[in-house]
Amino acid sequence: MPGIGPRTAQRLALHLLRQPEIKIRSFADALLAAHDQVGQCEKCFHLSAESVCEICRNTHRDKRILCVIADSRDLIALERTREYKGLYFVLGGLISPMDGIGPEFLQIPNLIERVDKDEIKEVILALTPSVEGDTTSLYIAKLLKPFTKVSRIAYGLPVGSELEYADEVTLTRALEGRQTIN
Questions:
Q1: Consecutive sets of 10 residues in the chain, 182 residues long: mean pLDDT of each?
Q2: How far is the C-alpha of 153 from the C-alpha of 171, rounded, in Å?
Q3: Which terminus in the chain has less CB density within 10 A, N or C?
Q4: Any idea where the domains of the chain sit in the sequence?
Q5: CATH top-level class of 61-152
Q6: Beta pairing class for 39-40 and 47-48
């Protein structure tokens, strides 16, 4: 499983094998139920048990701002900050020619349709600072700039890090994303 190393996987497997059969069946049933009940929101493509997720249904969110992310994990991370009050759009991945993933494999046509139909005033690109993330951001920005404001989250140094340990690209982006102190 992604994010679980061999030792953790072994500990989990050994723990499950020591459980009574009823607990293992209950766990398996819960996984099957989640698989059957959880789909994608028809507006933002985030994981949801409903046809429209609770974020898209929330009337207190700013419906004029749309944050574009690669997958639901990014949405969950942004929601943890409790700072972003707009809506989201999940692309379903990033453009990666090396892996055979072109724009046609992502939700880009649905994004363009939503920006147009919902009269979105700003699209915030919150994609991973990588070759794939940059490629996807540039591609989407080129498509959307004629219709709406397109911005990108700042990249730079994490809080508490030391400059001497940062790589050149991170330092460059931190300098480029600097802000005036008021």
A1: 88 93 93 90 95 96 96 92 94 94 95 95 91 93 94 81 77 76 62
A2: 15
A3: C
A4: 7-37, 61-152
A5: alpha beta
A6: antiparallel
